[in-house]
Amino acid sequence: MFTPDRSKYPKHVNGRPEIDLSSGKYTKVWHGPQHPGITGNMALEITLCGDEVVESITHVGYLHRGFEKLMERRTFIQCFPIVCRIAVPEPAFNEYCFSAALEELSDIEIPEQAQWLRTFNLELMRLSSFLMWIGGMAGALGQGTIGQWCVTHRDYVADLFEEMTGGRIYHMYMLPGGVRAPLPPGFKERAFKVFDGIEKMLDAVDKVLYNNYVFKQRTQGLGIITRDMIERYGVVGPNARACGVKRDVRLDEPYVKYDELDFDYVTANASDAYARAVCRFEETLQSIDLCRQVLNKMPKDGPFHTKTPNVMNWKVAPGETYAKAECTRGEYGFYMVTDGSDKPRRVHARGPSMTHAICLMEQLAINTNVSDIAGLMVSIHTYPPEVER
After folding, report:
1. What stretches of 60-216 adopt beta strand conformation (E)?
2. Which one of 82-86, 142-146, 235-239 scores highest in mean pLDDT?
3. Which pLDDT band, with edges at 50, 70 and 90, does 96 fall under?
4. φ, ψ at 52 (rounded to 5°)
5. Topology of domain 67-200+223-352, per CATH?
6. Which of 22, 160, 228, 354 is the most buried (most CB within 10 A)?
7. How far is residue 44 from each of residues 28, 124, 215, 219, 382, measured CA to CA in Å?
8. Is the CB of residue 179 less than 8 Å from the CB of residue 258?
9. H or E element: which one contains 42?
10. What is the mean pLDDT of the chain?
11. Whole-model pTM above 0.85?
C-alpha cells in the first residue's frame, strides 16, 4: 500500500491523524461541492498544514440517491428510466447492464442488428464522456478554452444521439430485448463528418494542452497509483491501465460485438495524473476508430428488437446474474436477483467511482498541494451519483 511521508505530521490512529486544530498549525477547509464539473456534487473535507494536505475525507450525498432501493418497488420496465440517472454523463452503460441482466435471467437473445446498434451506442457514449473529461481536466488546471472546444464537439455527439435515440442526454435506447429504433437514413455520413471534426480538434488539444509545459509540470508526478494499490483499492479502467495493467472488459470478456472489432489495450507506465490523461486521450481516438468500424460492419437492415413478455406483467423466474461493461472509468456492472415476481428482488450497481472517489482519493490527496486537488480529483474520473446510488 502507498504510504506518504507523514514524519512531519501528527501521529495517525485508526488511519486518521490526531490533529489539534486549536494549535494554529492546521487549517480545515472544504473543496466543493460544485456543479457543473467532472467531480460535480462531491466535496472533500481537507486538513492543511500550510498549503499541503494532511488529511482528506470524501463527502457525497448532494445529488441523486436510493436508486437500488427504488428498483425493488417498481416493475422491471418502470426501473428502466431510473437507471440512467446513476451515472449522468454515461447513461448508456446503465441501460445496457440492466437490460443484459434481465435478458439473461429471462433467457432472451437479442437480434444481430441490435447487437451492433448497442455496440455503437456504447462506444459513442464513451466518446462523449471522454470529451467531457478532457475539457474538465483542462479547466481544472486553468485551460478553460479547451473546455469550450470539448463541450462544443460533445454537443455534436449529442446531436448524433438525438438522431439515433430521440434524446440528447438520457437516451433510454437499449431496452430489454434490443433497441428502440434503427439508424436514420444518412446517419453514417453525418457521423463520419462529426468524427473528422473531433479528430481535428483533438490534434489542437494535443498541441495546446498535452504539450503545454505548465500542464506537464502540474500533472507529472501527481497522484501516483502504485501497482500494489490496484487490487487493494479495486482500481479499474484508465486508472489501472496508466499503471501498465492490461485490463479491459471489452477485450477480457467481450460482449455485444466487441469480439469482432480490431483494437488493443491502451496503457502507460508512469501512473500519475499525466499518464492517466494520456491514456484517456488515446482512448478517445480509439473510440472514434471503433465507432467507424461498427458503422462499416453493421448490417444495413434486420430486426432490432425481439419479442418480450408483456412489460406490464413481466414476471422473471428466480435467479441471479451479473452483467458488466467497460465504461470510461472501468468495469461497470449490475448484480440482479429475481424471485419470480414482477419486480427485482435486489439490484446492485457496481461502479468504479465508489472506490476511486473515496478509498483512492483519500490516499492520493495526502501530501498534495491544495492547488492541485482539483486536477487530482478530475484525473481519477468519478461520478458522484454513482457513489450515492
Report:
1. 174-175, 178-179
2. 235-239
3. very high
4. -110, 135
5. Cytochrome-c3 Hydrogenase; chain B (1.10.645)
6. 160
7. 10, 32, 23, 20, 13
8. no
9. none
10. 88
11. yes
